[in-house]
């Protein structure tokens, strides 16, 4: 499990330049420009999401706690259910699947599967 905070922004390009100046490396980006995720070496992940296209109403400047799982989401869901977090459920999005659960403070937390379907996205190492 890797921690992947998601920062919502009104200017993905400017925030991308900022994160790259901090030393992060873009990994996968949406062809339309509304999403970029980054690696920080072996230290973790971070992502940018255009606030204007947030389906959950996130505003520019918000940062949410998210994760990326190498394990099947069913295993993560089952562990959460066993621990009493019974609202954990899996959603199949266009880019892949994600698990959504409410934390003890009442805040939604997302666990994404590692993205393998690149339709509408590109690996930055493939970009020219």
Strands, helices and their partners?
Elements: E1 2-3, E2 6-9, H1 12-21, E3 25-30, E4 35-39, E5 45-50, E6 63-64, E7 66-69, H2 73-82, E8 89-93, E9 96-102, E10 108-113, E11 121-123
Parallel strand pairs: 2-5, 7-10
Antiparallel strand pairs: 1-7, 2-6, 3-4, 3-11, 4-5, 8-9, 9-10
Structure description:
The protein is α+β, with helices and mostly antiparallel strands. It has a single domain, classed as Roll (2,3-Dihydroxybiphenyl 1,2-Dioxygenase, domain 1). It contains two helices and eleven strands; from the N terminus they run ββαβββββαββββ.
Q: Unreliable runs, pLDDT <50, ≥5 residues?
A: none
| Structural class label | alpha+beta
Instruction: Give the CATH superfamily.
Output: 2,3-Dihydroxybiphenyl 1,2-Dioxygenase, domain 1
Rg calculated over all Cα atoms = 15 Å
Q: Compute the separation of the termini in Å.
A: 30 Å
The strand order across the widest sheet is 6-2-5-4-3-11
Measured by DSSP, the beta-strand proportion falls in: 35-45%
CATH architecture: Roll
Mean pLDDT: 88
Q: Which CATH C-level class is it?
A: Alpha Beta
Principal-axis shape equals globular
SS summary, helix count: 2
CATH domain topology: 2,3-Dihydroxybiphenyl 1,2-Dioxygenase, domain 1
Core attributes:
single chain, 128 residues, alpha+beta, 2,3-Dihydroxybiphenyl 1,2-Dioxygenase, domain 1, six-stranded mixed β-sheet, five-stranded mixed β-sheet
What's the short story on this structure?
This protein has 128 residues and is an alpha+beta fold. It is built from 2 helices and 11 strands, in the order ββαβββββαββββ. It is globular, with a radius of gyration of 15 Å.
């Amino acid at each position: 499990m890797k921690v992947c905070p998601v920062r919502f922004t009104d200017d993905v390009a400017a925030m991308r330049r900022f994160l790259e100046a901090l030393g992060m490396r873009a990994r996968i980006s949406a062809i339309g420009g509304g999403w970029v995720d980054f690696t920080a070496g072996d230290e973790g992940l971070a992502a940018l999401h255009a606030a204007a296209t947030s389906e959950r109403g996130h505003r520019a400047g918000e940062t949410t706690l998210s994760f990326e799982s190498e394990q099947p989401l069913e295993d993560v869901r089952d562990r959460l259910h066993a621990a009493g977090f019974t609202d954990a459920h899996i959603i199949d999005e266009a880019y892949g699947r994600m698990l959504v659960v409410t934390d003890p403070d009442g805040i939604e937390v997302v666990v994404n599967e590692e993205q393998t379907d690149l339709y509408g996205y590109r690996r930055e190492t493939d970009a020219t």
